[in-house]
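step 4 of 6: structure.
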Amino acid sequence: MKSLKVKDSEYDIKKAKILKAKMLTSMEKYFEIALPGGESLDHEPGQFVEVSLLGIGEAPISISSSPTKLGSFELVVRNVGKLTAALHKLEAGAEVGIRGPFGKGFPVRILEGNDLLFIAGGLGIVPLRSLINFVIDNRRDFGKVSILLGCKSPKDLLFGNELEQWGKRLDVNFNCTVDNADPDWKGNVGLITKLIPGIDLDPERTFGVVCGPPIMYKFVIKELVKKKIPDRQVLVSLERHMKCGLGKCGHCQINGVYCCQDGPVFSYDRIKNIPEAL
Amino acid sequence: MEQYFVLKKKSFNDFVSTMAKKQKVVAPIEKGNNQYAFEEVKSGDEIATGYIPTILPPKKYFMPQNETIAKFDISSGQNMEPVVEYEKMTIFGVRTCDLAGIQCLNMVFSDRPRDLNYLIRKNEITIVGFECNDYCDEYASCRLVHNHTPNGGYDLFFTDLGDKFIVHVNTLAGEEIIGQSNVFEKASDQDIKMLNILRTKKREIFAKNEVPIEHENIPGLFDKSYNSKVWEELEKKCVACGNCTNVCPSCYCFDVVDEPNLDLKTGRRSRKWDSCQHETFAKVAGGESFREERGARQRHRYFRKFKYPMDKFSRFFCTGCGRCSRTCMAGINLKETLTVLVEEHGMKNPNAGEVRIG
């Protein structure tokens, strides 16, 4: 058996450097990462990268920063597996391997000129933030922007300062709810679906952009349909185990589609007849 | 002009040993208990005659069970070198079902983004096909998926004509093998006639599908079958061992695993066969498993053979080899499953095929 170096292998990694690392909650850690030579990641909001630590493995992680942020990109990683546990031990200066970006992100060109209703549950804010910040950085290209954010308790809120900024902006309608409040909490309490009926929207020109745990989708989509938003204007980002990112390994397959190549962003119109999707 | 040669059976040994001197030759050898396996051979008498589909299909050479895709050294950062492992070889004795399996893999791995490891390796492999003059056993369903006769995908193709083989030359690589030894003669008109007679006879042997449905109605059957009761039956039987996908010539799902050496600095990133039949296959780190039930995983396997590839590549990924049924410890049988579906949806057509479950 011969072994030959392969040029242009899809499995090749870029040696990237962690510029900043910070715990956001007890479970989630933030990383700012730069590719060698300041090369741009050149991603679309909603895409993901494969993060490697050689000897430990590789895992798909959503890109959390907007492509308008140049020179580096951001990831937020929950400590749930072998690779993410190892990542949590890393600080600024450490190296990681990066492949990607992969997949189909949010269709930003199509969204332009329309009203946007963002609905994020729990960690769903991490990939959604790439689009929210993109929209904020190109604010005049979009119509009304509303953000609904839900999570378990106030201590689980990610990007606290940024949320505050979104809340202060006059051109963004920001609303947050928690399942379990603590005594200092002044916001809403209860499920995110409760916030949807009260939103004033024009269904013809509104795109609902949803990201959250699997259980959330069915209920949120139901509410959006009640609001008469057309199915093709409801966008979701699905979570699967995108092992190779190349549409081959099979782990992320949802019936006939590969989440890593055909998604992770899908319109509800596209997936409503794919039984394994939601 | 199609090129045919003949090889007398008494010269078969000479042919194989000449070929084996030039490069590695693998062929089916007998392992006992009516089991066969592709292994390296040096002469013709090692090769089994009348073999049924081998335990593992030739997929193991195109997509090794455990393949190094990169070597790494982390003593000074995340340094990795992607590699491909390959070997020049000739696979002798590939049945038409397995030729179809290789064609399926070719489609998948040359579909963009292309898989260079597979494509480089494939270019080093010469394929010598071998015709089945009759059914191997009752598990095969090659007629149903039109793989009982050759559909290309080989360099040379052997057909047994009794005291000699007639050999179809399909490629330049095939022609080179013919040229390597002086044991081949140009086929005469009589030889071609014998081949035609054999093929006519085969049309009688393989007259009907192995499942009572027309080939062209299978996609329609699967369009209706997602919520069939048959998956609940398979749920009760399946033990989720993954044997069916391992032995399948067109199953290609894999896992990627890092294996550090004892120095904990160097090591390899490898790609290993994986199976959608395992509970963990569609699980994400957060704990959610997207195909939790065995019935749903079996359905996924069937749909990956008869429905999804039809939509994407316009071909079935079931090659009809029968390996999944032959190897299943729980007795799940592909012909039976399809027959239940056909009957459930009132699509049974006794003129199209008959069930011959042994």
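step 5 of 6: annotate
 - The longest helix of chain A spans residues 125-137.
 - The mean pLDDT of chain A is 96.
step 6 of 6: archive
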